[in-house]
User: Fold these one by one.
Assistant:
Number 1:
Amino acid sequence: MVNKNKGLFSGVMSGALWGLDTVLTGIILGSSFFIGTKKAILLAPFVSVFLHDTFSSLWMFLYMIITRQAKQVVNALKTRSGKYICLAALFGGPIGMYAYLLAIKYIGAGYTASISAIYPAAGAFWSYIFLKEKLSKRAFIGLIISVSSVIILGYFPDKIEISNYLLGFFLALVCVVGWSLESVICAYGMKEDEVSPTQALQIRQLVSTIFYGVIIIPVIGGIGLSSEAVTSNISILIGFTALVGTASYIFYYTAIDSIGPVKATGLNITYCIWAILFDTVILRSNITLKLILCSIFIIIGSIMVSKN
């Protein structure tokens, strides 16, 4: 019973903290530091996701040291599972997380969180296509419910003053593809249980950080802005946001271990509701009944699929 309560609490906390991470990210992208010049505006999403994953990797490394898993992470990188996680990290970090942050920039935290919450259902679909895992009728119905809710959000946008809405909507869908493929590749690679979930997270954040730091940031000319961000006050907020996101991941994996992936996923994807609540409380953003209802149906549909 204690383990179950721990799992339920961890699942709820994982969703709440990721919702908070989403809103804080929106604040970072809208800060004066990133909207001061045209160049800063263009580079903001790249630099933000690079620093977010860098800080998250450092927080995870500290966690690895405290839990005495640092040596196991090095060994895990040499395994078959570790190599698959490195591949999955490219879909989850540079592709998925970047698209997520850019979508927040264009359509706000509430809409981005709601649309991206379809990723568990999309992951089940990719498993059906690539891993030949069977989906029940209930799972197909859940997939239809989730996709239909997302289409309603995108095709019938509310009367809100948001520029580039379709671009933001498309980027949120790119995030869904990135995160869902990441989960499928990780699941395939971790069948042999060579890597623990927290070790996998450390590898994921480290690979994403290196990929951005060595390839993306230098190519786009973002080294200067990244250096300025690290030495400015905005780095404190980015570091705190990364800590919130990292804590969300750890709570999520704790929930998976305690109550299983189905219930853990069902509680975690409530982050879209939490994002709407935090967005309203912190930023005083307007929310609509349609956004709330579509978010609820997205969660219901994703749970129906993941229960398969």
Note: DSSP finds 13 helices and no strands in the chain.
Number 2:
Amino acid sequence: MLTHSLTLTDRVAGRIAEQIAHGTYAVGAKLPAGRDLAREFGVSAAVIREATERLRAQGLVRSRQGSGCVVLSRTGSQGFRVPAEAGMDRTQLAEVIELRMEVEGGAAALAARRRTDADLAALRGALAELGRHLDDPERGVEHDLAFHRAIGQATHNPSYQQLLQYLNLQLRQAVHTARSNTQRQPGLSALVHQEHEAILAAIEAADEAGAREAVHRHLRNAAARLQLQEAGG
């Protein structure tokens, strides 16, 4: 069983969800501004952004740039959910990696077809930051997720962007687990970074099939490094 303590994002999102459920914030009401929530919970603005995005993914709030978050429902959507990281076992983690393989592989292929110069600059920047923090799991996970988020942006498909953002939020601890595991093995961080570089190279070359395969290879290797069996196998 892969078990982890709840992240700050989990705890803050859970507390706000409880406040919504108990009527502290009524349906139709706006949540306090991000800086006020950050002060209330003693966390950074980044944690509040992630927590409110998680609430949005659950159908509890609607967020709009410049207008804050409005409460939509006192109870979350019962639709598709990725298992919570704290309760995710090895089989579930293998299943989620299999899902990511197809979703992120497809996104990379679209990114290879549609990427702009601005998209490539964002991808290179995210990868450069990741390269500077290979031995820091805490900061490395942020730049790892930023790189995959930049791939979503390069698809120029809002549905892909929203789905990848949802997966990133739900899988933050899983990515942290993988990067922490990698750091414990000498030389492996550099090897994983080369896998990211191969994804970027294929997108830069407008090689759709190559981009898809580079993502598949990266995630297959990630599963192998965590000693996970193929889902359904």
Note: Confidence is low (pLDDT under 50) at residues 1-5.
